[in-house]
Every structure is written in structure tokens, then in C-alpha cells.
């Protein structure tokens, strides 16, 4: 999906929502998929283009502790395998 380079505000999008080519409130910028109708499909694209990207919650020390434990276990297993092969 390519977001339009011409910005449109939420108010402008709302005004155009439900319109089709030829209607007085039709706005080509709101018709994100350029099919001549401003509908739900355009809204989902509008929302994706104009919403800030979701940011994952900051990891907690508990997550880091679990990762550290997993890494230590992997190292122990690898060392064990290495020693068994000798
Ligand atoms: Ca459309």
C-alpha cells in the first residue's frame, strides 16, 4: 500500500466519506484506492496512513531476565554437547 503524498485531514476525509465521483463532496485524496467511491476500504487505508505506528510496550526487566535465562540454558546445552563429543 502506498500512502498518498497529498495530505488530507480527518475532517476532509469525513466530509468525502460515502461520496462517489461526481458528487460535490467527492475528494480524490480521500479515494485512496481510486475506484471512484470513498468507502470503508478507503477508510482503512486512511487510518493506516495517518495513524502513528504502533509501538510495542517497553520490555520489562522480567522479559530481559527470561531472555538471559534462555541464553544461559542454550550455552549450557551447547557446552554439554561439545563435551560429550570429546
Ligand atoms: Ca475508494
Short recap of the structure:
The chain is mainly α. The protein has 3 helices and no strands.
* Rough outline: rod-shaped
Ions, cofactors, ligands: which are bound? calcium ion
Low-confidence stretches: none
Helical proportion? Answer: 40-55%
Number of discrete domains: 2
Structural category is mainly alpha
The biggest beta sheet reads: none
Global Rg:
26 Å
Q: Could you report the average pLDDT, rounded to the nearest whole number?
A: 86
What is the H/E order? Answer: HHH
Beta-strand portion reads under 5%
Report the total helices.
3
Total count of strands? 0
Calculate the terminal CA-CA distance, rounded to whole Å: 55 Å
Q: How is this structure best described in words?
A:
By secondary structure, the protein is mainly α. The protein folds into 2 domains: 10-50, no CATH class; 58-86. The chain has 3 helices and no strands. The protein has helices at 10-16, 40-50, 61-85. The mean pLDDT is 86. The structure holds calcium ion. The site of calcium ion (CA) has 8 residues, from helix 2.
